[in-house]
UniProtKB/TrEMBL annotation:
Stretches assigned to the Activator of Hsp90 ATPase homologue 1/2-like C-terminal domain: 21-152
Protein name per UniProt: ATPase
Lineage: Bacteria, Pseudomonadati, Pseudomonadota, Alphaproteobacteria, Sphingomonadales
Record Gene3D superfamilies: 3.30.530.20
InterPro entries: ASHA1/2-like_C, START-like_dom_sf
SUPFAM superfamilies per UniProt: Bet v1-like
Family the UniProt entry places it in: Belongs to the AHA1 family.
């Protein structure tokens, strides 16, 4: 299993990670705002089909204290995204639509499976409208899943912004130039 995401189909990428935490603990880190904030984005989720999702991004809080936010990302600090729960089956499946400023929503699916004392997490982000968006979200998910692994293992934070730039380049190189976004 590679930490790198793979293109599944037009407009979809998938990541698999084996996390060293029981499924219930991983579920809590997906669904509880204060725990999710430690690795991705805070904000409330109404855990029922049709429930609202609010994601508040403060990536500067995920970086070591001495790492400065690059200029091109400063505008996104405190950014709020909205979504809607599609499916919730605790503690195994969470699916939500992520609303974009334009066009139809993306879909994010988290499937959790117990594996010994750990959990296999499979993240699929679909309905991405373009290759550029596939590259962007792939780098972001890769980085945030790394942070989740570190948080669950109680490791100190690794550099965030330098790794973000590296993953952006990695996925620019990995995702085929002719990859297409999802059809409308």
């Amino acid at each position: 299993m590679s930490d790198y995401g793979i293109v599944m189909e037009s407009g979809a990428v998938r990541f698999e990670r084996l996390l060293s935490a029981p499924i219930e603990r991983v579920w809590d880190y997906l669904t509880q705002s204060e725990l999710r904030r430690k690795w991705f984005a805070g904000g409330e989720m109404e855990l029922r089909p049709g429930g609202s999702v609010t994601l508040i991004f403060r990536n500067s809080e995920l970086a070591p204290d001495d790492e400065e936010v690059p200029e091109k990302y400063r505008q996104y600090e405190g950014m709020v995204s909205k979504g809607e729960i599609v499916t919730v089956e605790p503690p195994r499946l969470l699916v939500f639509d992520w609303f974009e400023e334009e066009g139809p929503p993306n879909r994010v699916s988290w499937a959790l499976e117990p594996r010994g004392e750990g959990t296999l997490i499979t993240l699929t982000h679909s309905r991405l409208p373009s290759r550029a968006m596939m590259v962007n979200v792939s780098g972001g998910w890769h980085l945030h899943l790394d942070v989740l692994e570190d948080v669950l293992a109680q490791r100190p934070p690794r550099p965030f912004w330098a790794r973000n730039a590296q993953f952006e380049q990695d996925y620019e190189d990995r995702i085929p130039a002719d990859a297409e976004g999802a059809s409308a």
